[in-house]
């Protein structure tokens, strides 16, 4: 986690993003390159999470969303899934006090009902401890899928229609925006994917409609402040038109 000096630094880029989302890919390959089990890569990846959060805090990002466990990851070998769940518990136990100290608000997005009661309790406890913090909002996407998110939002809208609160002809884009995850945060400006793959993998499908995409061959355990800086610098050089003809500074809105 960042030092007090880092937290007070004024490194915010004028054209930098407010909200960054990261697909953390490459843990397994990183471990395989070293002749180790995949869980060794996941453990190393926790250190990269710390570095990413530190960078986000010291550069005054409003939100950082990390794709930790997708709804499709249950298809991985049972032993790996069990190890990931235990790692999640340990990470919450070891990191939440530091997050709270640095004014970070932690939230977990996704369908956590499939997790063990022990993990669900850790999540609730961590969110409760940090819920009033006003600095970086750190979102951990766990058992999350973009399609699940949209379907879940549609179900909530259908309930409103069924109860007579909402008319079908009044449903528009802004209606669904209110019912998907992260609706209270700044839009995602930048999506970073590590590990060399060039796909979205069912991540924040609704929320990243106009986000800039940045792909790097760096495997997640090797992701550091310099790699993050490179992605931010690349973002700052792009012109964002949001479907129009003139470049728009999203921070001015």
From TrEMBL:
<dbReference type="GO" id="GO:0016094">
    <property type="term" value="P:polyprenol biosynthetic process"/>
</dbReference>
<comment type="function">
    <text>Catalyzes the sequential condensation of isopentenyl diphosphate (IPP) with (2E,6E)-farnesyl diphosphate (E,E-FPP) to yield (2Z,6Z,10Z,14Z,18Z,22Z,26Z,30Z,34E,38E)-undecaprenyl diphosphate (di-trans,octa-cis-UPP). UPP is the precursor of glycosyl carrier lipid in the biosynthesis of bacterial cell wall polysaccharide components such as peptidoglycan and lipopolysaccharide.</text>
</comment>
<feature type="binding site">
    <location>
        <begin position="26"/>
        <end position="29"/>
    </location>
    <ligand>
        <name>substrate</name>
    </ligand>
</feature>
<dbReference type="GO" id="GO:0000287">
    <property type="term" value="F:magnesium ion binding"/>
</dbReference>
<feature type="binding site">
    <location>
        <position position="198"/>
    </location>
    <ligand>
        <name>Mg(2+)</name>
    </ligand>
</feature>
<feature type="active site">
    <location>
        <position position="25"/>
    </location>
</feature>
<feature type="binding site">
    <location>
        <begin position="199"/>
        <end position="201"/>
    </location>
    <ligand>
        <name>substrate</name>
    </ligand>
</feature>
<dbReference type="Pfam" id="PF01255">
    <property type="entry name" value="Prenyltransf"/>
</dbReference>
<dbReference type="GO" id="GO:0005829">
    <property type="term" value="C:cytosol"/>
</dbReference>
<comment type="similarity">
    <text>Belongs to the UPP synthase family.</text>
</comment>
<feature type="binding site">
    <location>
        <position position="74"/>
    </location>
    <ligand>
        <name>substrate</name>
    </ligand>
</feature>
<feature type="binding site">
    <location>
        <position position="212"/>
    </location>
    <ligand>
        <name>Mg(2+)</name>
    </ligand>
</feature>
<feature type="binding site">
    <location>
        <position position="76"/>
    </location>
    <ligand>
        <name>substrate</name>
    </ligand>
</feature>
<keyword id="KW-0573">Peptidoglycan synthesis</keyword>
<comment type="subunit">
    <text>Homodimer.</text>
</comment>
<keyword id="KW-0460">Magnesium</keyword>
<dbReference type="GO" id="GO:0008834">
    <property type="term" value="F:ditrans,polycis-undecaprenyl-diphosphate synthase [(2E,6E)-farnesyl-diphosphate specific] activity"/>
</dbReference>
<dbReference type="InterPro" id="IPR036424">
    <property type="entry name" value="UPP_synth-like_sf"/>
</dbReference>
<feature type="binding site">
    <location>
        <position position="193"/>
    </location>
    <ligand>
        <name>substrate</name>
    </ligand>
</feature>
<feature type="binding site">
    <location>
        <position position="38"/>
    </location>
    <ligand>
        <name>substrate</name>
    </ligand>
</feature>
<feature type="binding site">
    <location>
        <position position="25"/>
    </location>
    <ligand>
        <name>Mg(2+)</name>
    </ligand>
</feature>
<dbReference type="GO" id="GO:0009252">
    <property type="term" value="P:peptidoglycan biosynthetic process"/>
</dbReference>
<dbReference type="GO" id="GO:0008360">
    <property type="term" value="P:regulation of cell shape"/>
</dbReference>
<dbReference type="GO" id="GO:0071555">
    <property type="term" value="P:cell wall organization"/>
</dbReference>
<dbReference type="InterPro" id="IPR018520">
    <property type="entry name" value="UPP_synth-like_CS"/>
</dbReference>
<feature type="binding site">
    <location>
        <position position="42"/>
    </location>
    <ligand>
        <name>substrate</name>
    </ligand>
</feature>
<feature type="active site" description="Proton acceptor">
    <location>
        <position position="73"/>
    </location>
</feature>
<keyword id="KW-0961">Cell wall biogenesis/degradation</keyword>
<feature type="binding site">
    <location>
        <begin position="70"/>
        <end position="72"/>
    </location>
    <ligand>
        <name>substrate</name>
    </ligand>
</feature>
<keyword id="KW-0133">Cell shape</keyword>
<keyword id="KW-0808">Transferase</keyword>
<dbReference type="InterPro" id="IPR001441">
    <property type="entry name" value="UPP_synth-like"/>
</dbReference>
<keyword id="KW-0479">Metal-binding</keyword>
<feature type="binding site">
    <location>
        <position position="30"/>
    </location>
    <ligand>
        <name>substrate</name>
    </ligand>
</feature>
<protein>
    <recommendedName>
        <fullName>Ditrans,polycis-undecaprenyl-diphosphate synthase ((2E,6E)-farnesyl-diphosphate specific)</fullName>
        <ecNumber>2.5.1.31</ecNumber>
    </recommendedName>
</protein>
């Amino acid at each position: 986690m960042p030092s007090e000096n880092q937290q007070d630094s004024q490194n915010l880029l004028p054209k930098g993003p407010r909200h960054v989302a990261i697909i953390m890919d490459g843990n397994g390959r990183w471990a395989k390159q070293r002749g180790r089990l995949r869980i060794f890569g996941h453990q190393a990846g926790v250190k990269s999470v710390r570095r990413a959060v530190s960078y986000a805090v010291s550069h005054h990002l409003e939100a950082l969303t990390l794709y930790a466990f997708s709804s499709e990851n249950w298809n991985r070998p049972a032993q790996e899934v069990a190890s990931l769940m235990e790692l999640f518990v340990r990470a919450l136990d070891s990191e939440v006090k530091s997050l709270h100290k640095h004014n970070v608000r932690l939230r977990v997005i996704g369908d956590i009902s499939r997790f063990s009661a022990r993990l669900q309790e850790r999540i609730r406890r961590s969110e409760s401890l940090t819920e009033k913090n006003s600095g970086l909002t750190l979102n951990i996407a766990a058992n999350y899928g973009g399609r699940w998110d949209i379907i879940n939002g549609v179900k909530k809208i259908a309930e409103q229609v069924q109860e007579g609160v909402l008319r079908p002809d009044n449903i528009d884009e802004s209606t669904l925006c209110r019912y998907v995850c992260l609706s209270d945060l700044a839009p995602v400006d930048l999506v970073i994917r590590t590990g060399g793959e060039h796909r979205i993998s069912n991540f924040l499908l609704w929320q990243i409609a106009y986000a800039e995409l940045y792909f790097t061959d760096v495997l997640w355990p090797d992701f550091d402040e310099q790699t993050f800086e490179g992605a931010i610098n690349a973002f700052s050089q792009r012109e964002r038109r949001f479907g129009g003809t003139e470049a728009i500074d999203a921070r001015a809105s």
